[in-house]
Amino acid sequence: MAEYSKGISPVGWYVGSYLLRFIELDSMGNDDPDGKFLVWENTVIVRAGDLEEAYAKVVAIAKSGTGPYKGGTEGVPVQWVFEGMTELLPIFEPLEDGAEIMWAEHESVRLSELRQRARSLSEFKEHLDDERT
To answer: Buried b vs exposed e over 71-89: b needs ≥16 C-beta within 10 Å?
Structure first.
């Protein structure tokens, strides 16, 4: 196995996740630390020469969709607010079927919990159907 630097992708690709929070611009409490909001965590890949360039690209992508607009049938002023990045990892393998682009280590997990995390195809489909309704 080749030796890699942890912060540099040998194939020039990085995977990054970021958080966007949805607000109604005229609502009170948009900056309430205890307030609850609809949040999307999006994950994208970017081509970059190093971690700093990848970070800047992911932030630019995240912020590109955060302008205010009129939402819903009533045209309520709304906006997605960029809250920050949650993950930024180099991709170490060329992009193709089966290429590993992310991994996470989970220490000391009970077998019963581990088996509850695994999902079947029908569960993924059900989750996506629920999201559409």
So the answer is: eeeeeeebbbebeeeeebb
Given a contact cutoff of 8 angstroms between Cβ atoms, the answer to whether 12 and 49 are in contact is yes
Q: Is the pLDDT of residue 17 over 70?
A: yes
- Residue 126, token pair as written in the block: 């059900």
The token pair at 20 is: 């966007």
Can you say how many angstroms the Cα of residue 35 is from the centroid of all Cα atoms in its chain? 21
Task: Give me the residues paired with residue 19 across strands.
Answer: 41, 84
E strand map for the chain: 13-24, 39-47, 69-71, 76-90
- The answer to whether 42 and 17 have CB atoms below 8 angstroms apart is yes
Backbone angles phi, psi at 76, to 5 degrees: -75, 135
From CA 98, how far away is CA 66, in angstroms rounded?
Answer: 33
Q: pLDDT band for position 4 (50/70/90)?
A: low
